[in-house]
Queue: 3 jobs
Job 1
Amino acid sequence: MERVVTRLYVEDSLSQGATVGLDAAGAHYLRSVLRLNTGARIGLFNEKDGEWLGVIEGLGKGWCSLQIEEQRRKPTPEPDIWLVFAPIKRSRIDFLAEKAGELGCSRILPVFTRYTDVKRINRDRLAAHAKESAEQCERLSVTTVDDAVTLDKLIEKWPDDRRLIVCAEFGDAKPIAEMLTEILVKEPDAGQRPWAVLIGPEGGFAEEELEALRRLPYVTPIGLGPRVLRADTAAVAALSCWQAILGDGGMRPPKGTTPVTVA
């Protein structure tokens, strides 16, 4: 199968023979950034239709039309893992949104805790990073970015069936690998259920916040080792552990846009 270098997420339905038009931003990216011309082939994807090969039929300033040729990958289910985090400074929150996408988060939820320093986030910028991350890492879906809420509001509306891993910097908490392995032994299908990871602010949780979280029936406190990690590092570490033990970290890596098949 032909390997394509450029992949674009599109919300339009994808099917053989269909024509898809890109918005002005997508057209500008292909025309002015990548310098592509009519006849160039790119990958088009979304979570509903999978990935398809598209051929540029026409390309101009602010517009682009593509003809859909063939399906390259069928839609596949992904682990349902959210990242909940206290906002951090700009360059590092951008990094966090990007890496959450690469690590398979279905949703990221900024939350204001007592010691959160950053009081505003640019949701559109984070969503753009999440989309670009999906296009580069072979995902078929894009991480959803929520508006920021307070911790109290988050808990008030939390779905009871979604388990929440709280990364605790103090108190009684088992190491994450030990805890997740225990859960997997008891519940072999645990990774097929909804989960979330909560990372506190740079100043840590207030003691009463952490104690209130521990009392919730869906919360599992975990530790990330003896070192104090920056918030973005803690998020990457926790998500990596979850994917390795409960998620899709045991799957073979793809080859280009063609999944590896083991005979």
Job 2
Amino acid sequence: MTLTNRDIVELTEWRRKLHRQPEISNEEEKTAKEVVSFLADTGPDKVLTGLGGNGVAAIYDSGKNGPTVLFRSELDALPIEELSGVPHASQIPGKSHMCGHDGHTAILAALGRQFGRERPASGRVVLMFQPAEETGNGAAGVVADPRFGEIAPDFAFSLHNLPGVPFGEVRLKPGVVNCASRGMRIVLEGKTAHSSMPETGTSPMPAISELMPALPALGRATFADDDFSMVTVTHARMGEAVFGIAPAHAEVWATLRTRRDERMADLCAAAETLVKEIAGRHGLSASWDYHEIFVASVNAPDAVEHLRRALDEESVAHGEEALPMRASEDFGLFGHSARSAMFFLGAGERHPALHNPDYDFPDDLIPIGSKIFMRTARNLLG
């Protein structure tokens, strides 16, 4: 089963409509309603809304025994001002689809069109439109939602477009494909003083001067090593924006990154010990908390083989180059309860990079991504 030319035109127009009205993580209410409305004509057997926040699951059921196969896309955009200059550019200041989630959503909607015309021969297909991927809490919210038990997929598949890879080629491999990561917010507290008498207070300035180079030094091994870890300082601030006060308060934000989930606990412990030691040496109190927690995305070998079969049958070139990646992706959480795999679909070697203000999803990837997913579903379910 393939998309018609009319399907492709309508899906492209709809993708651009989503692009013009982006909603960032945890705010995707209108986008979710757009998905439900667009799929209404396809007659899904069940639609779950509000999953893990603003998630939508459209279920196409054969009525016969068989596995449940989930395909996932993301709904959220980014807090970035768009500078692409395309006619369908974002109409929302400071927000834009600079990661291509609008295109991924259109690819899943293409599956809905096709399964609306002909159900799988067995089992069920679930189209999972997930919220809040960019902040890492979307997949966690969906999986924790009690209604996710109604889905309980046996297989879960996803894709992400990837600039820098030749257009339409795929990158796919078993094992780790995206790193685990989390944001660590460190707070240091001392005592303010008049800037003419700094010795009467306790400034965090010497401590953060030590901390900012010491945190990245916790990284170890090369990226090719399973024990790889990395710390990137992303933000720091100290005191108030005035000249008359020696500061008491400081914050340092850092992203901790590992290839393996097991290694993350060790890295967190090392960072916490470092903070306590430096703060104590400078007479400061210290606290920390964690945000945007991503587990490692690990492709199951049998799920990868199903995708490889589909790629070969659809004559899509594929390889393992560029994998794994340091970047994180919250799809990995679906792999804790299902055999899962994500592949990366080339957006072009010279295409603007993800999260850049001049990025726009290449519409011609919609039929390519959908035919890979469709072939995978038909091979599994008939």
Job 3
Amino acid sequence: MHGKSPVARFYDLLADDYHLVYADWEASMARQGEALDAVIRSELGVERASILDCSCGIGTQTIALGRCGHRVTGTDISVAAVARAVIEAERRDVPLVAAAADMRQLPFADKQFDVVVSADNSLPHLLDARDVRKALSEMRRVLRHRGLLMVSTRPYEELLEARPTSTPPQLSTAPEGGRTITFQLWKWHDDGEHYDLEHFQLVPDGPTWSVRVRRATYWALTQRQLAEFAMEAGFTDPEWKTSEDTGFFQPVLTARAC
């Protein structure tokens, strides 16, 4: 990879403020960790697994899974996000091995992990089939035999029908005080599958508001497409679990490494 990618720039700019995406980041971390932990225990029958979160961001899922007793490693294409994940893990006494890395080129030997996680719609930052296959092949490579893949995305079947152009505003309050309003604008491409996202944060600035805008592009991968890509990458038994099934806020694809 040459130079910093648009995805890395997007999350570098967002790293300091990413917790404000949630109304209550701590509570959301706990809910997400409990939901993913329950899936891992159900699928693998173990209480403590070696987990790689290959799109860890500032540590939302990684730290939560560490709090559940798992051995966690986090990587992300954003150096700033990984640096913050390390700090947040230390603050919560969660042991975390972390590195900046592209999920298409993971810096680990073969068969190192029991579980690989890529949550919160990270994989759809890859905009074509070649890159998605490459990332999934890397995830399979670092998983032990019958290891567990867990990928969560937005519910794109529904979104492709509705073609939303924005998200509702989210009001959050930082622990140190101060309110922030977050929302997104979406512009769909002519191909009907990709969209540009503008992520807005409105932050109080004296008597007025400061506006921060970050931009990224996504591929609205359907569940069928992603399951097929996983099988092409060498996974078996792909299964989509709904939010109602898991308690996680997005649908979760599980599959097993051959």
